[in-house]
C-alpha cells in the first residue's frame, strides 16, 4: 500500500509484511526508490505474554535527502489494541484520549528511529493470537503527511533452533551445518527468517538462490521461508549451510538465528546488508520430529583436527652486573593451525641473579602522553614469576614484548619463557620441546652453573683463552707460568689422547 507526502507527492513505503527498521524483520523487500521522506513500521508485530522485555516500537521516520525530522509530529492510533498490547509513552511521546499517542520529534537528523514509544508486552487479559491494527501518521511542519500500519498481536511464536555441534572435523575441509526450527510458542508463525553469521575465521558459501548474502567478509546469509509453522511443529533444512575456515581453522563458531516476522532479530540485524543473491538450488524445509531443539541454541561450535606448533621466544642477556638489558620474549605459532587469544598466554621466570623491571605505572592524568604497554602480572619488579597475556596467533605469527632485566649477578640458573595453551590446544601441539625457551646471562646455561664455564655455554678447552664481560682473560692454562720446552711438550703429549677420545665419540 502506498501513501504520499501531501504536496511533495513522494512515494512512501508501507511495509505490509515486515520492517527494515532495526528490531523488526520480515520477508525480503524490494528496495525503496530513495525519493522523498518515508515512514517505516513492521507489517506485523508480536508481543510477549510472559516475562516481557521492554522494547521500543520499531518505527523509523526518514525526512529525505537534505531534510530534518525536527518539527514532525507522529500520531499513533492504537485504539484497536487497547486491552491487547500495553504501550508506554515517554519523553517526546505522550498518551492522549482513546489510546492515541502523539510524538513531537526534535531530532536534527534526517532519519530518526523512534525510541520513546515502548512496548511492555501483551495485556494479561488478552488471549494469545488476539490482534489489532495500529495506524501511524507523520505530519511535517508544512502539512506533508505519510502513513503506515502495523498489526500487533498478543503472544508470539517461540522459535527454537536445532542443537548442532561439530567435532573432530577433518582439517582444511568445508563443514556442513544442518539446522532447523521448532515453534514452542502459543501461536503460529506465518513464516520465518534465518540469519546465519559465521565468526571472522570462517566463510559461508553462497549456494541458495532463496537466500541473500553480504558482500563483505565474513559472508553472512539471510533466508526467508513463507512456510506457516504451527505450535509444536518442527522443520529441518533439506540441505546444509557450508562454512569453510581453510587450513588454519582449529575452532570456529557459526550462529544460526531464526525469527518470525515482527519479532526482534537482535540489535545487529540489518536486512539492507544482504545484497548478493545466492546461486544454486532453493533451500527447502522438511517436516521432522520436535527433538534435538533448544531455546538459545543458535550457536554452532566447530572443532577440527588441525594441530599447532607453539614456540616460546627468549634469548641471552649480555652485560655486566649493574647493566639493564632489553630482551624480546613471547610466543610464536609455527602452525599450521591458528590459536584463539583467550586460550593463549606465557610465563616468564627471570634468571637467578637478575631482576625484571616493568615500566612505570601510568599516570592517572587522562591527558598524559602515551601510556607504557605492559601485558604481564604482577606489575612490580623482582617477582620470581610473571604471567603474560597474548593475542590470538595464526600460522607463522608471533606475539612478543621487549622486557627489561637488570643483571645483579652473572652466575645463577637460567630463566625461561613457557608457552601456556588452554582448552585442548596443548594436545594439538605434537612438538612440546620448543614450548620452553631459556633466558641465559652471557651464555651461561644450566650446565655452566654446575661446572666452571667460559661465558659462551662451552667448557674451556686446554690452552683456550676467552674474554669475559669485563675484558679479563679466563679459562685455559696460564701460559706465562708454563716456561720451557719440556713443559710445553708435556702438555702437547697430554693433549693427544684427549683429542683422540673426542674424535672417537663423534665417530
Q: Taking strands numbered 1, 2, ... along the chain, how are they ordered across the largest sheet?
A: 16-29-25-19-22-21-26
User: How would a crystallographer describe the biggest sheet?
Assistant: 7 strands, mixed
Please tell me what the overall shape is.
elongated
Q: Can you count the beta strands?
A: 41
Q: Report the uncertain regions.
A: 1-35, 449-507
Strand content is: 35-45%
Helix content: under 10%
**N- to C-terminal distance:** 94 Å
Rg from C-alpha positions? 36 Å
Arithmetic mean of pLDDT: 81
Count of alpha and pi helical runs:
2
Task: Write the SSE topology.
Layout: E1 2-4, E2 11-13, E3 38-40, E4 44-47, E5 55-56, E6 60-62, E7 73-77, E8 85-89, E9 93-95, E10 100-104, E11 111-113, E12 117-122, E13 131-139, E14 145-154, E15 159-162, E16 165-169, E17 175-177, E18 180-183, E19 192-198, E20 203-204, E21 211-214, E22 221-225, E23 234-237, E24 241-244, E25 251-259, E26 274-277, E27 285-288, E28 293-294, E29 299-304, E30 310-313, E31 316-317, E32 324-333, E33 344-349, E34 354-357, E35 376-377, E36 386-389, E37 398-407, E38 415-421, E39 436-441, H1 446-450, E40 466-467, E41 473-474, H2 485-506
Parallel strand pairs: 4-14, 16-29, 31-39
Antiparallel strand pairs: 1-2, 3-6, 5-12, 6-11, 7-10, 7-13, 8-12, 9-10, 13-14, 15-18, 15-28, 17-24, 18-23, 19-22, 19-25, 20-24, 21-22, 21-26, 23-27, 25-29, 30-32, 32-37, 33-36, 33-38, 34-37, 35-36, 38-39, 40-41
What does it look like?
The structure is a single chain. With 507 residues, the chain is mainly beta. The protein has 2 helices and 41 strands. The chain has a 7-stranded mixed β-sheet with strand order 16-29-25-19-22-21-26, with no helix packed on it.
